[in-house]
Amino acid sequence: MLRYFISNIKVKTSGGQEYVVPQDSSYFLIAEDNAASQFVKVKVPVGEYAAVSFVLGVDSLRSTMDISKRTGVLDPTGGMDDGMYWGWNSGYIFFKMEGTSDVAPVDPSGQHKFRYHIGGFGGYNAPTLNNVRTITVDLTAGGVAKVRPDRESNVHLMVDILKMFNGATTVSIAGNPTVMFSEFSTKVSGNYVNMFTHDHTEN
Question: What is the pTM of this model?
């Protein structure tokens, strides 16, 4: 299983002008087992965009809003097992990867499972772990996005999940089969900011 939130999308023109996608239209849950979820569609003004940035996770403002403001992919009722929310910790899981590996120790169910549930937005009333990460992708080398009144621009980003393991910190399933709300989770989030690269743009 691989799922993660993309939110707070912004684009920047070649001239340096920034456009912020309205927040209510800027939350997406990407799921590896759902191809349709991997096409994130937003409306931006006509222009030529040289960079896109987004948050991997859910920002603190939205995380603390009334439940009525957290619908669609942000609906917390799925819980931790099926969804992307810690009921016990009142917060979203930004990045969730689970599976089995021979190098993971045997768990109580008799399986060699690994679990990475990375979240933490900085805390409600006191500082806690903050794994909200902003990712900026330069589009100039692979082709700027030329948004026109009568046609869409399609920006293809590639995601290399191995970068989560092989970043500034080496993350080992054998050594770290379960990472949730712990200091080590900041090492994982520090790695996964480098997963995204721009492949090409279709204009």
Answer: 0.92
